[in-house]
């Protein structure tokens, strides 16, 4: 059974940006792509546990603010060293003006 969580308003995230969402002791990062799609990953870098919401979004990547490692936020794939462990990704849907994630 799906567990959809209301995370934010669609307007809370600028195009090609990221916000932090905390839920039940976990941190997530929610992204809005240049194509106006929404994505969700684990919110902490797998290299140093830094909040990815403080990082830089470019195209379809998030760059960790600490050591500049990059992930493809659509797939969670570690894309540039020093990161080598992928992020968890979570389904996202938009209903009305609300962004929901499935965890």
UniProtKB/TrEMBL annotation:
CDD domains: Rieske_RO_ferredoxin (cd03528). It comes from the Bacteria. InterPro entries: MocE_2FeS (IPR012747), Rieske_2Fe-2S (IPR017941), Rieske_2Fe-2S_sf (IPR036922). PROSITE patterns: RIESKE (PS51296). Pfam families: Rieske. The keyword Metal-binding applies. Residues 5-101 form the Rieske domain. Its cofactor is [2Fe-2S] cluster. Keywords: 2Fe-2S, Dioxygenase, Iron, Iron-sulfur, Metal-binding, Oxidoreductase. The keyword Metal-binding applies. GO terms for molecular function: 2 iron, 2 sulfur cluster binding; dioxygenase activity; metal ion binding. Belongs to the bacterial ring-hydroxylating dioxygenase ferredoxin component family. This is Naphthalene 1,2-dioxygenase system ferredoxin subunit. It comes from Flavimaricola marinus.
């Amino acid at each position: 059974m799906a567990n959809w969580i209301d995370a934010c308003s669609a307007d809370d995230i600028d195009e090609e940006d990221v916000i932090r969402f905390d839920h039940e002791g976990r941190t997530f990062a929610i992204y809005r792509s240049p194509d106006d799609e929404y994505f969700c990953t684990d919110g902490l870098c797998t290299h140093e546990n830094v909040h990815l919401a403080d990082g830089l979004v470019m195209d379809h990547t998030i760059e960790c603010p600490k050591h500049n490692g990059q992930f493809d936020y659509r797939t969670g794939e570690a894309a540039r060293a020093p990161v080598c462990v992928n992020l968890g990704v979570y389904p996202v849907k938009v209903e009305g003006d609300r962004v929901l994630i499935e965890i």
